[in-house]
């Protein structure tokens, strides 16, 4: 497989940078909304309003957590771009196809290695569960 060319690297870096900016704006907006919901919850006009405010805060926390995970993945991808290892599978060392990186710019593994990783990780996560 061929390594990424400079145009592909630039295109992917632009995508990652734009997504980073959008996520940071989303997180700021979500934190601001949580503040407003906390104000509603503190007024406690009735239990329905309180329940809605608490649910909104919980959903907002989940959204921020999801966004922070993606933001970290973007940071790792940008570091790999800077050090020259971007596009190289961390499991097998082969190049990750450009099409895969366009679909998932934060991909650390080629599709076969990712499938194997997910199968292994899922099985480990299931061991402690009873059916």
Structure write-up:
The chain is mainly α and 131 residues long. The protein has a single domain, classed as Four Helix Bundle (Hemerythrin (Met), subunit A). The relative contact order is 0.13. The chain is elongated and about 65 Å long. The protein is built from 4 helices and no strands.
Tell me the fraction of residues in β-strands, as a range.
under 5%
Largest sheet composition: none
Average per-residue pLDDT, rounded, comes to 83
CATH superfamily: DksA, coiled-coil domain
Which oligomeric form is depicted? single chain
Query: Can you tell me the number of structural domains?
Result: 1
CATH architecture, please? Answer: Up-down Bundle
Q: What's the SSE pattern? A: HHHH
- Envelope shape: elongated
DSSP helical segment count: 4
Helix proportion: over 70%
Distance between the termini: 43 Å
Q: What Rg, in angstroms, do the CA atoms define?
A: 20 Å
Category from helices, strands and their pairing? mainly alpha
- Poorly predicted runs are 126-131
CATH topology type: Four Helix Bundle (Hemerythrin (Met), subunit A)
CATH class: Mainly Alpha
Topology:
Layout: H1 6-43, H2 47-83, H3 98-103, H4 111-126
Helix pairs in contact: 1-2
Give a quick rundown of the structure.
With 131 residues, the protein is mainly alpha-helical. It is 74% helix and 0% strand.
Salient structural properties:
Four Helix Bundle (Hemerythrin (Met), subunit A), mainly alpha, elongated
């Amino acid at each position: 497989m061929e390594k990424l060319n400079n145009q592909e690297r630039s295109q992917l870096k632009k995508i990652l940078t734009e997504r980073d900016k959008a996520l940071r704006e989303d997180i700021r907006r979500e934190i601001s909304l949580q503040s407003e919901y906390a104000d509603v919850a503190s007024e406690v006009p009735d239990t329905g309003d309180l329940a809605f405010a608490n649910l909104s805060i919980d959903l907002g926390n989940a959204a921020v957590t999801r966004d922070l995970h993606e933001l970290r993945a973007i940071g790792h991808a940008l570091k790999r771009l800077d050090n020259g290892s971007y596009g190289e599978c961390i499991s097998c060392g082969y190049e990750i196809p450009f099409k895969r990186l366009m679909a998932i710019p934060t991909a650390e593994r080629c599709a076969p290695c990712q499938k194997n990783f997910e199968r292994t990780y899922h099985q480990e996560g299931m061991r402690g569960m009873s059916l």
